[in-house]
Amino acid sequence: MNLNWINQVGEWNPQLFRELKGRLKTRNLLLSVAISLLGQFLLFMYFQTQLPTKLDLLYNYTHKYCTGRRVYEAQECLADGFGNVIINWQVWSLDVFTWLSIIGCFTLLAAGTYLIINDLTAEERRETLNFIRLSPQPPQSILSGKMLGVPILLYVGVLLAVPLHLWSAFAGQIPMHEIFSFYIVVVAACFLYYSAALLFGLVGSWLGGFQAWLGGAVVLGFLLVTMRVALTEITDDYPVVFARLINPCYLIPDTAISATFTSASSRLTNFRWFAFPLGDSLFTTVGFALSIYGLGTYFIWQSLQRCFRDPNTTMLSKRQSYILTACFALITLGCANWQRLVLETEPSSYMLAENVVCLLFLDFWLFLYLIAALNPHRQALQDWARYRRTSRSKGLADSKLVQDLIWSEKSPGLLAIAINAAIAIIAISTLILLSQYPLDNKINALFALALSGSLALLYAALAQLLLFTKNQHRVFWSAATVGAAMVLPVIIVAIFASSSRNNNVLWLFSIVGPIFAISPEGKSLSPITALLPILSYWSFMSFLVFQLRRKLLKAGESATKAMLASN
After folding, report:
1. Same domain, 103 and 74
2. Rounded to whole angstroms, how far apart are CA atoms 540 and 546?
3. β-bridge pairing 74-76 and 70-71
4. 162 or 411: whose pLDDT is higher?
5. In terms of domains, do 95 and 231 share one?
6. Does 394 share its domain with 533?
7. Phi/psi at 276 (5° precision)
8. Residues 165 and 243 both lie in one domain
9. 94 and 71 in contact (C-beta within 8 Å)?
10. Dihedral sign from CA coordinates of 181, 182, 188, 191
């Protein structure tokens, strides 16, 4: 095929030129076009088979696409002057539009994520990734070339479906601004997901061939779980609406989604952010979603630029992590039900507990990322330990040591994670203290926050200690051990708690402890029982920190001796 235009692209972005030249072969293009057209044909023919027939008239059946009187979830079928069924083509077109939108989103996000991660895995396996790193191109140019070029055949297939998508939208009488607002959201979502795929591809190479499948499966699972149809029982006035906003399927024009899924609630109609009714307008809703995509993409690209040039550095600097946590806390806290928790005098019994649990659930994923992003690996810790050894520090009281632990990128990440935990806890505590609830409920909620913060620090200390080991697969063992520390206590407590109701207090010693603490059963806990798990976590964490400090001192001493001997 003629590659003149590709050569022109190469002058602008050489990495994009490399990706396009390798993928835009005639055979690949024909295959992409054939799959897209065949998929559209099958979808169109499927909906043709769903149209009512004369049998529906004969037996007085009701049907979704009929135009008569509504009976339960369908309409009676009416006939025209020729005896044919009168069909509601608008509803039929809306169904085609909705399913094209869902399939397109899933294809772009899940398949695109898989392709990008798989490409980086292949580059790593062929040992060409380090060669790309050494090129004079800036990281932004190389990574954007990957993002635009690797899924190019996917883009071709999706673009071929746009005419059918627009035709069904116009036939369904969807307003033009809603259609293009949805397109903008999908593009922004692709940028966010593909950026995350690039980051996972760079830092998760230790997973090998399983990496691409894991990334694609996680995205697919997330899209399925957060789809509005799967979560119709959870209204838009809970903080988990934040997770839905990251799924572009949730922002399919309401005219279409409500016609296809009658059980689906209206598009974010009840959504409020700090009691401001953002859900009242399409533009405020889309604008808020785009701001989330923009912030997420910004922080991911900060990590990408750091990790691309130096694979051994941390994904975020400590300063960046504080800003990230503050932004995340602000956005998710605003998604809580401030209208009923703070502004109403008599909120429902469990609303505070439900909102706090949702906020803790969202923070759980943030801190998993922070533990991975802030804890440096063995070489960086050795360099820092040698620097501390030669700087003649005065121990823990040394202000330079504290500054290092707060700001230095090579120092252990535990204190930085503690500061991030404090930021998140202070944010949620604001909601708890301002809520119109009795003091007992507030104390239980604050106790749940203390448990959550203690668990986060314990997992961070465990991960940091394991990342300092000499094991070649220390990243794998660190992830596996932290995962086991989360899962195994739940299994053990479930076995013991099932035998006797008196053993329910054991849940406090697992990752679900904060949920138990804020539940109705948590109100009966004595102060000693409540403090016992926190003291246990801090004792174990202190032991881990002591072991880490001992190893750092030993490493600093050994490195200093080796450096002096070489001189």
Report:
1. no
2. 10
3. antiparallel
4. 162
5. yes
6. yes
7. -85, 125
8. yes
9. no
10. negative
Cβ distance 374 to 417 under 8 Å? yes
Asked if residue 171 has pLDDT above 80, the reply is yes
- Specify the pLDDT at position 230: 47
234 burial via Cβ count (<10 Å: 0-12, 13-18, 19+): middle
Q: Which residues pair with 74 in a beta bridge?
A: 71
Strand partners, 85: 79
Mean pLDDT of 470-498: 87
Interval 367-407: pLDDT, tens: 999 999 999 988 888 888 887 666 655 555 567 888 888 88
Report d(CA 559, CA 393) in Å as an integer.
16
Q: Are residues 336 and 416 in the same domain?
A: yes
* Confidence category of residue 4, pLDDT binned at 50, 70, 90: low
Burial degree of 481 (CB within 10 A; 0-12, 13-18, 19+): middle
| Total domains in the fold of the chain | 3
Give the number of residues written for the chain.
567
pTM of the model: 0.90
Does residue 521 form part of some domain?
A: yes
**Which pLDDT does position 309 carry in this prediction?**
83
3-class DSSP string for 48-114: HHCCCCHHHHHCCCEECCCCCCEECCEEECCECCCCCECCCHHHHHHHHHHHHHHHHHHHHHHHHHH
The answer to whether position 282 is within a domain reads no
Could you tell me if 339 and 394 lie in one domain? yes
Contact 416, 405 (CB under 8 A): yes
Q: Does 325 share its domain with 434?
A: yes
Let me know: does 112 contact 194? Beta carbons within 8 Å.
yes
| Residues of the domain holding 558 | 318-566
Q: Helix %, strand %, coil % for the chain, to 5?
A: 75, 0, 25
The tokens describing 187, both together, are: 């593009």
Residues 362 and 333 sit within 8 Å (Cβ to Cβ): no
- For helices 351-374 and 414-434, the axis angle rounded to 10 degrees is 170
